[in-house]
Amino acid sequence: MKHELALDGEAIELYRKLKPQIDLLETQRKHVLNELFFYIPVISGVTVIVTHKLLSLSLTITGICFVTVIALIYFWKTLGYTKKFKEQIVAEIFKTLAPGSYYLPEQYVSQSLFTTSDLYSNFNRYGGEDFASGKIHNIDFEFSELCVKYVSGSGKNKTTKIVFNGLFWTFSLPRTLGQRTLILNDVAESTLGSLVGRFIQKKLRPGYELVQVESAEFEKKFVVYSNDQIKSRYLLNPIVMEDLCEFRKKYRESIDVSLQDDKLFIGVKTNKNYFEPRIWNKVVSYQDIQEICDILKLAKDIINSLDIKSKLKVL
């Protein structure tokens, strides 16, 4: 029987639990949308008339005023709706999936933890939101959405490279496992082929050895590095490898995993903002809940694969 990434029943149960709050927010969303359709054209029209016709400002200045007014109207009308969504939906998701957890929408995982993961480097802008902290299987976790960039130059020569944008998890294990292992989204081999890609892979991570795995499907999607070939096998459980492949196939998101002694990190690169309410579409769908459940299920399976209680004694 094929191993399934997530328990659909868990997502269904959570969605049903949140349905009353979702329905109330859906009503509010439609009300906010109607107000936006009224306020934006009226106030924007007045802005254009005042700035361009009466004050004789240039089209460039008028355009800047126009965009600014639209942004202010949007923020003004959606502020309360967003606040209720965070309090009634997002906080409840974490409390249900990780009982005892707490949620701080304006905080984020510390930069020091992000750096410790050794997953991503070369950045000079770091920020995020939607911080949550609690326990999964009695393992402490921290989570947030992060946006990490490298910005260089200024003015017209300013360039911005996105280093990481997405969901970032960190788990504090009860003891060190004595290994540093990375499971990364494979770009080199999938782009350049196995021969050239494998050569480049060996040069990409100084201080780590390239680890070969027996799963051909897994090797097409991921590359593994470790400072200990033997101990890294504990992390490369067949269920974990299948979970990672299924997650990539199901959501087409880039996912990376790092085990650094007593810390486990999971980074999911995505342009989707999971914890902001939609205005132009349904506030939250069953698919949204399912995807969050799948990520947590993946984290639980990785922790289980380490079998911490029995294996710590022999590592």
List the helices and strands and how they pair.
Blueprint: H1 8-54, H2 59-97, E1 102-104, H3 111-116, E2 125-136, E3 139-152, E4 159-172, E5 180-185, H4 188-192, H5 194-204, E6 209-211, H6 216-221, E7 222-226, H7 229-235, H8 238-251, E8 254-260, E9 263-269, H9 286-306, H10 308-311
Antiparallel strand pairs: 1-2, 2-3, 3-4, 4-9, 5-7, 5-8, 6-7, 8-9
Helix pairs in contact: 1-2, 1-9, 8-9
Nutshell version of this structure?
The chain is an alpha+beta fold and 315 residues long.
Structural class: alpha+beta
Fraction of helical residues? 40-55%
Number of strands: 9
What is the overall silhouette? Answer: globular
Radius of gyration: 23 Å
| Total of DSSP H or I helical runs spanning 4+ residues | 10
Average residue pLDDT: 80
Order of helices and strands: HHEHEEEEHHEHEHHEEHH
| Largest sheet entry | 9 strands, antiparallel
Unreliable stretches covering 5 or more consecutive residues: 1-7, 309-315
Give the distance, in angstroms, between the N- and C-terminal Cα atoms.
Answer: 32 Å
What percentage of the residues does DSSP assign to strands (E)?
15-25%
Strand order of the largest sheet: 1-2-3-4-9-8-5-7-6
